[in-house]
Design a protein that fits this description.
alpha/beta, 6-stranded mixed sheet, 3-stranded mixed sheet
Amino acid sequence: MHKAGFVNIVGNPNVGKSTLMNQLVGERISIATFKAQTTRHRIMGIVNTPDMQIVFSDTPGVLKPNYKLQESMLAFSESALADADVLLYVTDVVENPEKNMDFLEKVQKMDVPIILLINKIDSLASDPEAQGKGGAQKKLGDLVERWSQLLPKAEILPISAKNKFGVDMLLRRIQELLPESPAYFDKDQLTDKPARFFVSEIIREKILLYYDKEIPYSVEVAVESFKETEKNIHIRAIIYVERDSQKGIIIGHQGYALKKLGTEARKSLERFFGKDIFLETYVKVDKDWRSSQRELDAFGYNPE
């Protein structure tokens, strides 16, 4: 008997979906930062054993779209409802359960097994609000009760993805719920994304970490050249921004900011690929790319 299935991770922004994905897969597939809207695509991470294949999907945080890029991000999240064999709905201990009820109502109608994960329970120990209301256990109990009303068919599991608390238990439960099926992908495959995708994601992660305010959300990264040899990889990447002023910020005084970005990205890329990396980065202006369907298609924001 062989089991296989799609286990899709959904939820609102900044609840820890990407951290959970990386813990479940055992590899750093999704970029995870403290900033919301880090994930823009649907990213698959594949776990293989001789008698099982679990295809995890990390998805963008659910939000009300303000421009076409966010419409595409929401479409990626909604597509995860359509093909899930098991759905992981991630929330945390501070989120309002009624947030984004339109999406939650779609989840309520699903017939597949749903596991509701209350993440970041480690933060309850230092939460003054929780202490003032009778303790962390009471707050957690109240959250479980509220979520059981909103998603009565869901199993509820408190976890801390960052500390890996509850993750092994979750993985065992997923294995129990998977349907019998042959593998969907080759058994040596880790993800559905090409190497170039992870180059752009790692560079974008550094931009999220090192630049403030609107800059990271106005940026897209495209890999123009990826040439791999046995010992090294030569990469040429273009960082697109929407405004000339943003280009100046990315480059920084005398190019210092861009140089730091390139150095930190190169170090992460060398860890990721296990090879020496030669990285060239350039900055170009592509006005209003987040609102242009043609540009979004070119950057791979097409859920179909």
